[in-house]
Design a protein that fits this description.
The complex is a heterodimer of chains A (675) and B (293). Chain A has 24 helices and 19 strands. Chain A is of the alpha+beta class and 675 residues long. Helix content of chain B is 32%, strand content 33%. In chain B, helix 1 packs antiparallel against helix 2.
């Protein structure tokens, strides 16, 4: 028997250990995403308190002003490291250390409770950076330790043992999973953020709205998945035809290509020729583009297996006149869409503005290229012949396709074409467009992805950041037509991917390498699992929720009906679990079960047992009420009392059998009801 | 305890925990973190099953009164309650009296425990146990469930014995002369510290003369064992409570010296007797004494 401890008693060693375990396990998954010194400081503070004996630590009085000072120093350090403070990443880093400082400062169970809450929030923040299966699993140890920590904070004087506490927490979590699943499915998802997101929340790997020499090359080093594609009928077009169109860049300042300031809306290609239909699962990239095979013959729709809810908006994106698919809001969640494309590579231009925008060239930059273009155009008699001549030049001159081009000067196109001749796709595409514009042919740069890898395990196409590519298109005879100068230099790039095209010895992202090692195969299997995870769990957004509600025929339900449904389900869950607990109890002890049965019978007959009434007293009361069964009631009461409170005897089984017989001969309820 | 009488509310820590979950939820909504939702809801499930667990920890305990103790006013009065646990083992059950005194108890599976709760014995007379709160925030301290039980269980609070009390009054059957003769016959048993009110002829004057301090002679013998009559009238000059206190002290002294005594109060009379039962009857009579107006 223990007297309840006051909340202000200092924490015991065991309580501190539980708290340290929780804090460290909450910090661990994040350690990869905060600066190294932050990771070390945050965990170090916890370890220090745990490792040092209490008398070696600064006294609580000293700590009271030392720790805020420490927090201030860390905040300044973070401000200097990031250059700003009020944004997501610096705040996560600060919270990371703050949890350590709070641990050092924690004195009593109330502080401990606050620390638990901070640690839980810290655990959530790792999902800002990654939402893979691994990230989900990484949170589990902290969650499992949570129960023991709370229990330890509750009962100070006794030590909470690790294993039973963790098992108990796991059991409670498993019990809570139906509730978690219900809430996960039914809790309303938002289409956009509640408030403006800090800028760094949007910065993700992916194509951007500008292209300077080196920008796509930098992207090509990443193995990250950009999107995955399921083709209708499972038939993907050959690699050389897989041009995934993204940002179209028409403006040029002599060095950097950018978007036109204002997008005009366009229409999909009308075609009678064969089209491909496919469904893209696009990873969130924080920008507007949806990617489509050239050329889009439709607007992206919600997948066939998930048409929009009735009355919902079916258009996911708009098509611009230069055939970019733009969503209305930055893509912060994975999005799925079905798209139809024609593989015929041309589409009509749209009038004078289209022409004018794509002839723009700064006069004072890259003079050698402009002069060269004019001279070459004079030697041939048609635009097509001129283009063929330019491509021939790329093919025949010693141009090198490489991820590590030499630095270029103020006129990068000049430097690339005439001096270094080493470049990546953005150099070729950019220089090609400059040469065309200088010769009076409207042309522009198209960026996107080219190729992709079919995952044999699942039959879908994976397009990675390393498939990022830039090519060109020119307006000839009123129609835009694709030209890929990189293909002239390194034909294998478009046919077999980056790994085949780069010279030996260059650093190639692992998954872009050609040989199918077992490790790479394993990673493809893993990607197939991840794809399902991404679609089902991480990608569970407003759209998927609508789909699911429609499948459950709940799409027309009013919010209060859904809330009532959820409440009812939670109630059922509680009753079910309590019922199981009761059944377990009765199965364990037949004596209790028989007694409960007898009491229930008499209660239904109109004589309820009082809570404090013992078996003998209750039997007596029943005997007075129904004297005709006096002997039976007394027998049941006495044998129950004997079995339950009496000494253990060898004939217990016989006694139980006798009790069962007695209970079985109890009069039916309607007989009891007769007065 | 019947299920319908169990109340459950979040504790302070539980409220803080739920607030944290709310913040996590808003963050997940804003950043569109599916796994954030998953983690938040997983923890919500944990909170919900903790609620069930708290409830189950309390439900189905049969509490019944066993006995009430007796105590002198100003000391502790204890009550015994029986906790019969029909179910699985239960932990951290707090039994709290109306005066906010708590005892924590763990109940093994299928076991019956006798739990002693104490209250401060306030004033002489009957003192009932009052409302007892049975509560628990097991297992996580996020929820506190409680139930009230009320038993017609009352203990007897005796008057506070007067201390130091004057010596026992002389027996009523003999004169002072015979008493002192008898005292002289009795064997000197020893000395004890002088107490105010000790008879002059019992003071160990020799010791005083030696400067060794003040002692009274203690005698053993017929004089010490003679039956006593403790009378209300012997305590004249004091108010009612003080008279009861003195009589209480005398009852205790008589019992200590193993002397039979009778007790005469205005409303109650106890014949000559001895032993624990007699002592209890006497003390109870003193405790429950009511003066007729």
């Amino acid at each position: 028997m223990i007297f309840a401890s006051a909340p202000a008693t200092p924490l015991t060693r065991a309580q501190l250990t539980w708290l340290a375990a929780l804090v460290l396990l909450a910090q661990l998954p994040l350690a990869l995403y905060v600066p190294l010194w932050i990771a070390a400081a945050g965990a170090g503070l916890v370890a220090a308190r745990l490792a040092l004996p209490a008398e070696r630590l600064p006294s609580p009085q000293l700590r009271r002003w030392l720790l805020p000072l420490l927090a201030l120093v860390v905040a300044i350090g973070i401000r200097m490291r990031f250059g700003y403070f009020l944004a997501r990443d610096p705040c996560v880093a600060f919270l990371y250390v703050l949890v350590g400082i709070k641990y050092l400062e924690t004195r009593n169970a109330r502080d401990g409770g606050l620390l638990v809450c901070l640690a839980l929030f810290l655990l959530l923040t790792q999902f800002f950076y990654t939402q893979t299966i691994g990230a989900a699993l990484a949170t589990l140890p902290a969650v499992l330790v949570l129960g023991g920590t709370l229990t330890a904070l509750r009962e100070a004087p006794t030590n909470v043992e690790w294993r039973p506490a963790i098992v108990q927490t796991a059991r409670m979590i498993v019990q809570g999973i139906p509730i978690a699943a219900l809430l996960f499915v039914l809790f309303p998802r938002l289409a956009g953020p509640l408030w403006g997101l800090p800028a760094d929340a949007l910065a993700r790997t992916g194509l951007s709205d500008r292209m300077a020499p080196g920008s796509i090359g930098a992207l090509s080093l990443s193995d990250e998945v950009a999107f995955r594609v399921d083709f209708d009928g499972g038939l993907a077009p050959p690699p050389a035809q897989r041009y995934w169109r993204g940002p179209v860049l028409s403006r040029f300042d002599g060095e950097t290509w950018t978007l036109l300031p204002r997008a005009r809306s366009g229409v999909p290609v009308r075609t009678d020729s064969r089209t491909v239909t496919y469904t893209v699962t696009l990873e969130p990239h924080g920008r507007l583009w949806l990617f489509a095979l050239e050329q889009p013959a439709s607007l992206p729709r919600r997948p066939v297996d998930a048409p929009a809810a009735t009355g919902g908006d079916d258009t996911l994106a708009l098509l611009t006149s230069d055939h970019q698919l733009l969503s209305r809001a930055p893509l912060l969640q994975a999005v799925r869409y079905t798209e139809r494309s024609t593989l015929v590579g041309t589409f009509p231009g749209v009038g004078e503005a289209d022409r004018r925008d794509n002839l723009q060239l700064p006069r004072d930059r890259n003079p050698r290229a402009i002069a060269f273009a004019r001279e070459l155009r004079g030697q041939v008699d048609s635009d097509r012949a001129y283009i063929a001549a330019v491509l021939d030049r790329f093919r025949n001159e010693p141009f090198v396709y490489t991820l590590t081009p030499a630095p270029l000067g103020r006129d990068p196109v000049d430097g690339f074409l005439f001096d270094t001749r080493r470049g990546f796709c953005e150099h070729y595409a950019g220089a090609f467009v400059v040469l065309l514009r200088a010769a009076g042919i409207p042309a522009r740069v198209v960026t996107g992805y080219q190729g992709g890898e079919i995952n044999p395990d699942g039959g879908y196409l994976i397009v990675r950041q390393s498939d990022a590519h830039a090519w060109s298109e020119a307006l000839l005879d009123g129609r835009w037509q694709r030209f890929d100068p990189t293909a002239a230099v390194a034909p294998s790039r478009v046919e077999r991917g980056l790994g085949a095209a780069l010279p030996l010895g260059e650093q190639i992202p692992y998954m872009a390498q050609l040989d199918m090692t077992w490790l790479k195969q394993l990673r493809l299997h893993w990607d197939a699992i991840n794809y399902q995870w991404q679609r089902g769990v991480v990608g569970f957004n407003l759209d998927r929720q609508r789909d699911l509600l429609r499948d459950l025929r709940l799409d027309n339900a009013r919010p209060w009906q859904i809330v009532a449904l959820a409440a009812g389900a939670i109630l059922l869950w509680g009753i079910f679990l309590l019922g199981i607990a009761r059944m377990k109890l009765l199965r364990v002890d037949p004596v209790l079960a028989l007694w409960a049965q007898a009491c229930r019978r008499l209660a239904l007959g109109g004589l309820r047992r009082n809570p404090e009434e013992g078996p003998l007293a209750y039997a007596q009361r029943a005997a007075r009420r129904w004297p005709q069964w006096r002997a039976l009631f007394e027998r049941i009461g006495e044998s129950y009392a004997l079995l339950r409170y009496g000494p253990q005897t060898t004939d217990r089984a016989d006694l139980i059998a006798a009790l069962r017989r007695s209970v079985d001969t109890l009069p039916p309820v309607r007989a009891l009801r007769v007065r | 305890m019947r299920h319908r009488r169990i109340y459950i509310l979040p504790t302070r820590r539980g409220l803080m925990f739920i607030a944290t979950l709310a913040i996590m939820l808003v963050t997940s909504m804003n950043y569109g973190l599916s796994l954030g939702f998953a983690l938040t809801f997983l923890l919500s499930g944990l909170v919900a099953s903790a609620l069930l667990k708290t409830y189950r920890n309390l439900a189905g305990i049969a509490v019944s009164p066993v006995a009430a103790g007796e105590a002198f006013a100003g000391t502790e009065l204890s009550f015994s309650l029986s906790f019969a646990n029909a179910g699985a083992s239960r932990s951290g059950i707090l039994v709290t009296t109306a005066a906010q005194r708590s005892v924590s108890v763990d109940l093994g599976a299928g076991a019956t425990h006798i739990v002693q709760v104490t209250s401060e014995a306030l004033r002489r007379g009957r003192q009932s146990l009052g409302r007892v709160t049975i509560s628990s925030d097991f297992p996580l301290g996020l929820w506190r469930g409680w139930a009230y039980v009320h038993f017609a269980l009352s203990g007897v609070v005796y008057p506070t014995p007067e201390a130091p009390a004057p010596p026992l009054p002389p027996g009523h059957e003999g004169s002072d002369a015979r008493r002192s003769a008898r005292a002289a016959e009795a064997e000197l048993a020893g000395l004890r510290d002088y107490q105010r009110g000790d008879a002059l002829n019992r003071i160990a004057w020799k010791a005083v003369a030696r400067g060794a301090g003040w002692y009274s002679k203690q005698f053993e013998g017929a004089g010490g064992r003679g039956p006593l009559e403790l009378e209300w009238a012997d305590t004249q000059g004091l108010d009612t409570e003080a008279r009861l206190s003195r009589l209480t002290a005398w009852v205790l002294a008589a019992e200590r010296e193993a002397r039979a005594f009778a007790l005469r109060l205005p409303e109650a009379e106890l014949p000559l007797g001895q032993g624990a039962t007699h002592r209890r009857s006497a003390l109870t009579a003193l405790a429950l004494f009511t003066e007729k107006a």
